Amino acid sequence: MQRRKLISVAPSLALAAFAAPGRAQSGYPNKPIRYIVPVAAGGGSDFIGRTVTERWARQLGGSFVVENIGGGGGAIASMTAAKAAPDGYTLMQGYVTTHATSPATRKLGYDPLKDFTPIGMIGGTPNVLVVSPTLPVNDLKQFVDYVRANPAKLNFGSAGIGSLTHMVMELFKQAIDGFIVHVPYRGIAPAFTDLLGGQTQTMFPGLAAAMPHIRSGRVRPLAVTGAVRHPLFKDLPTLIESGFKGFDAVQWYGVVGPAGLPPEVVKQLNQTLNQTISAADMTEKLSAEAVATMPMSPEQFAQYIRADLARWTQLAVERKILVEE
Known about the structure:
This protein has twelve helices and twelve strands. By secondary structure, the protein is of the alpha/beta class. The chain folds into two domains: 4-125 and 252-318, D-Maltodextrin-Binding Protein, domain 2 (3-Layer(aba) Sandwich); 128-224, Periplasmic binding protein-like II (D-Maltodextrin-Binding Protein, domain 2). The strands form three sheets. The protein has a five-stranded mixed sheet with strand order 8-7-9-6-10, sandwiched between helices. The protein has a four-stranded mixed sheet with strand order 1-3-2-4, sandwiched between helices. α3 crosses α10 (263-278).
């Protein structure tokens, strides 16, 4: 499924000269940049891509064409981006599924490290452990006790095998030595439908996706991942403070291009991206959607991807999670 939208900027000559001195020297960009979002239009990832590129275009002194390419858990979009010319005119919003959990659990037509040039991180949202209000538990300890006392009697939904929602729950099951039956779905929306309908009893979605259901009282939050409590839910403990080491996972979003991008283009893109997401109004807009901005250099982002991929690959081996396609 594809949807295109032109996000253009027509700054004054004075503003263009001020905002993009690198452009005047290199001539980049001199045409619209294709920005691939590896999910169907609508939803949190698409919102992030369109919100960021609209403001980023002003900093860069150019324009973006946002293109949604869904399917294959982001694999189709990733292969499209990887095969594009490394000239800076095709970028992709890589995220935890395309560059960490999916490559950790299946054979893909691309290498998440070798086939891409990391440009920069946008930000991330923690995962939140939620349960159906029908379960007789009110906090994390009660839930752990309930799972251990009722092995294989609870079902958890996920956005699909190998998704972060799946992997974080597998990490949790490993930590408590408990068993909850996995029910994979084709995306987080149908997984929530069955949780709200009582077909499943628990889930580990991203906080951004869970917020409407938490606020309506249709699911009960028990704990979040991350090193500190989330500012939107200050009364909700983290798993780490509750004694679960290693639960700092986040649903992250960043920008990558094909392997071999010119260093000067990467530098220009990274600097303007970081300026964009560091602006007060942008951090406020994204934080309202439970997304915290995470400015990084290309080198820092590359290391982040390597570490996240290694982490989920290890868990996939330990839990024997391999998707045969």
